[in-house]
């Protein structure tokens, strides 16, 4: 999750070269004009929906171990414009290419360095109704960024791999994304949204964002930007007996913001950053009162030791549940 800084302090996005233009040119073959945005919010879950798989937390943690190793081999971080970021992107892309996703690397420049977004489309589904799940892949320069945001990136990757493992064939089209330069001011996701045609923006029926979902002193926070998406996540957590609260700490500070500004229905999950956990929250969730949700937020100790496995497991499964529910 990016630092909350004035717009004037953010790195500017320069003119960029896009590696592939599928999403910037409106070139989905045969795609009809989308209906008005009011009609494109995700439909309520159907009773006949295919059951979402359980995401093995061991698999998600294995991706985090890879991100940690990549950072260790590349100056200790996976930040924008650094070798560790590109190695992280190549790791994710390799996993997706191997199981049949169509991947697109989109490049941009910020702060004099080249950045990259990775977009992965699962073949099939209605191209006029696209459900997206995404996370930012970059870390800050001070550390490996395993909770922020290896946790979201690893869970989104594992959900995509679960789609392939189960050969899931939803009614809607599924797209997954890993954003660059989020820590510099949502640069990658904003570039992606701004370079979509109006028609292709309108085809996105929902964007789900996952930024910090394994905080070591976790809370269970749900975005309240869209009622259908919000209720989908709440239903999952109610089903496992976990109370939730509305997410406020990260409002406008992660990659859902450009989508929301463009009129796309958005939602997501969060386990907390630098805010302090209250006694009332400890009564609901356990953990330590008076301590930050993540004491290693944006620091060098944000390593694989900085993850709460239970939070990572629950949020990963909630991610999969929402992807399956909202894409049917």
- The quaternary structure here is single chain
User: What share of residues is helical?
Assistant: 25-40%
Main sheet characteristics: 9 strands, mixed
How many DSSP H or I helices? Answer: 9
- Strand segment tally: 9
Q: Which stretches are poorly predicted, pLDDT < 50 over at least 5 residues?
A: 4-41, 43-48
User: What would you call the shape?
Assistant: globular
Summarize model confidence as the mean pLDDT: 89
> Compute the gyration radius: what is it?
18 Å
N→C terminal distance: 30 Å
Beta-strand content bin = 15-25%
* SS-based class: alpha/beta
Query: Main sheet: which strands, in order across?
Result: 1-2-3-5-4-6-9-7-8
Series of H and E elements: EHHEEEHEHHEEHEHEHH
Write a structural description.
53% of the residues are buried. The protein has nine helices and nine strands. It has helices at residues 57-72, 83-98, 146-165, 187-194, 198-202, 227-239, 256-261, 279-285, 309-327, and strands spanning 13-14, 102-110, 113-122, 126-136, 172-179, 204-210, 221-222, 245-246, 266-270. The protein is globular, with a radius of gyration of 18 Å. It is 34% helix and 17% strand. The chain has 328 residues and is α/β, with parallel strands linked by helices. A nine-stranded mixed β-sheet has the order 1-2-3-5-4-6-9-7-8, sandwiched between helices.
């Amino acid at each position: 999750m990016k630092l909350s800084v004035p717009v004037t302090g953010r790195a500017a996005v320069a003119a960029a070269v896009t590696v592939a233009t599928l999403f910037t040119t409106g070139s989905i073959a045969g795609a009809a004009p989308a209906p008005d945005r009011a009609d494109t919010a995700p439909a309520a879950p159907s009773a006949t929906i295919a059951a979402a798989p359980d995401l093995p937390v061991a698999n998600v943690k294995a991706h985090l171990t890879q991100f940690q190793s990549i950072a260790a081999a590349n100056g200790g971080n996976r930040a924008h414009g650094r070798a560790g970021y590109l190695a992280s992107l190549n790791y994710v892309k390799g996993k997706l290419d191997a199981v049949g996703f169509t991947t697109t690397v989109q490049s941009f420049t910020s702060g004099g360095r080249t950045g990259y977004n990775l977009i992965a489309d699962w073949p099939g589904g209605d191209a006029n109704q696209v459900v997206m799940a995404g996370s930012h892949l970059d870390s800050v320069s001070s550390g490996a960024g395993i909770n922020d945001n290896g946790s979201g990136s690893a869970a989104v990757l594992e959900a995509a791999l679960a789609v392939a493992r189960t050969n899931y064939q939803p009614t809607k089209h599924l797209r997954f994304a890993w954003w660059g330069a989020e820590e510099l001011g949502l640069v990658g996701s904003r570039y992606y949204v701004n370079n979509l045609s109006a028609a292709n923006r309108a085809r996105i029926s929902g964007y789900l964002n996952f930024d910090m979902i394994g905080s070591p002193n976790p809370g269970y926070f749900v975005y309240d930007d869209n009622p259908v998406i919000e209720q989908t996540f709440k239903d999952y957590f109610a089903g496992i007996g976990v109370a939730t609260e509305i997410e406020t700490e990260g409002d406008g500070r992660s990659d859902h913001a450009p989508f929301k500004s463009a009129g796309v229905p958005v939602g997501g999950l969060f386990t907390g950053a630098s805010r302090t956990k209250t006694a009332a929250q400890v009564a609901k969730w356990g953990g330590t009162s008076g301590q930050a949700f993540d004491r290693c937020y944006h620091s060098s100790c944000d390593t694989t030791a900085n993850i709460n496995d239970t939070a990572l497991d629950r949020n990963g499964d909630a991610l999969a549940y929402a992807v399956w529910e909202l894409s049917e």
